[in-house]
Specification:
Order of helices and strands: EEEEHEHHEHEHHEEEHEHHEHE
Radius of gyration: 26 Å
Structural class: alpha+beta
Distance between the termini: 49 Å
Strand content: 15-25%
Helix content: 25-40%
CATH topology of the largest domain: NADH Oxidase
Length: 350
């Protein structure tokens, strides 16, 4: 370790994080891969001395009650871990400190060792009878390149219902479990979109408005990909209204007729992939979003992925669970497509 120069002032990095684990203080910076461990709480006082830029000698003199060499060595370690940076140091201010911390953590992990078992996937217990979605709509021919070219986000929906067979096709082509023996030879799950380790922690909760889908009542449902069916969680427009109203605020237009609220049984992903689990969940959400977009375009439906839009804790309350057991990780609005030009986001396509 090269001793820090005394001719410049040092300050605490904006990306410094302090946490406690098993009685030990952990200090790190999101811009470094070094974590300092300490059991003496005085380390926090030392770090706080640099809350405003100071010369090292100022701090050493203030800590004259401790051996000078020990204080300097501790400061050098803080600098080496980028907990302390120079007054003029240029930091990546385009990153939010929390986001960068998550990014660093998700990129540094390693998957579970061979032979280690993952947590079992949640199997819904006894509940209301399942509502079969019925057969998908008759197959149609459309060039895949044409679907890709015309994929877009739209957030305007005419006042007409989606045919039940069309909605069945959407979920079947996007999220249903597949049992093709040519795809699976080990009994694992497979769906149209990829998932890290084929864990498939995502669950879809269709929130449906009144008269949004033919022969499907308003309410909040759980999609059961193993049966290609819906399981009713809460019936009626009053149950769906909070979700649809929040989605309307997210898209900035009228209330969408259907919102797919996407959650993750993250414990199963975490058991298998530890600290990179959440990163894999978000990537899986992205893959599901694109799959939903392409199938909606193929079926002639309007679709828009949302940056948010679920009332905090509302879905967990309906399920009778804690909010972090099965957290919401995405929302996707959809509905019929009008005959006129669809309103597009921010004046363009995304």
């Amino acid at each position: 370790m090269v001793p820090a120069p005394n001719d410049q002032r040092w300050r605490v990095s904006a990306f410094t994080r302090v946490s406690w684990r098993d009685g030990t203080i952990e200090i790190t910076s999101s811009t470094s891969n070094i974590t300092l461990l300490a059991s003496d709480a005085r380390i926090l006082d030392l770090v706080h001395f640099f809350a405003r830029p100071k010369y090292i000698v100022e701090v050493v003199d203030a800590w004259a009650h401790l051996p000078r060499s020990e204080v300097i060595a501790c400061i050098d370690e803080l600098i080496d871990a980028r907990v302390l940076v120079t007054e003029t140091s240029v930091e990546p201010t385009h990153w939010d400190p929390t986001a960068l911390a998550y990014h660093q953590l998700s990129r540094s992990g390693s998957p579970v060792a061979d032979g280690e078992e993952s947590a079992c996937t949640h199997v819904p217990g006894s509940g209301p009878p399942l509502i079969p979605l019925g057969p998908p709509a008759p197959p149609r021919n459309r060039d895949f390149a044409d679907v890709l070219i015309h994929r877009r986000s739209t957030r305007a929906w005419p006042k007409c219902a989606i045919e039940r067979s069309t909605f069945s096709t959407l979920l079947s082509m996007s999220a249903a479990n597949r049992s093709d023996p040519f795809l699976l030879d080990d009994g694992s799950t497979s769906r149209p979109y990829p998932s890290g380790g084929a864990v498939y922690s995502l669950e879809l909760y269709p929130v449906i408005d009144t008269d949004a889908i033919d022969s499907v009542d308003a309410g909040v449902y759980r999609y059961r990909p193993d049966h290609h069916a819906l399981e009713l969680l809460a019936a009626g427009a009053a149950a769906s209204k909070p979700f649809l109203t929040s989605a309307a605020e997210a898209v900035g237009t009228g209330r969408p007729p259907v919102v797919l609220v996407i959650s993750s049984r993250i414990a199963s992903q975490s058991q298998a992939y530890h600290q990179i689990a959440y990163s894999l969940v978000l990537k899986e959400v992205g893959a599901l979003f694109q799959t939903l977009y392409l199938v909606c375009e193929f079926l002639g439906l309007s679709a828009c992925a949302l940056g948010g839009g679920s009332p905090d804790g509302a879905l967990a309350e309906l399920r009778g669970e804690q909010i972090f057991d099965n957290p919401v990780v995405g929302e996707f609005a959809l509905g019929p497509r009008g005959s006129g030009p669809a309103r597009q986001i921010d004046g363009g396509r995304i």
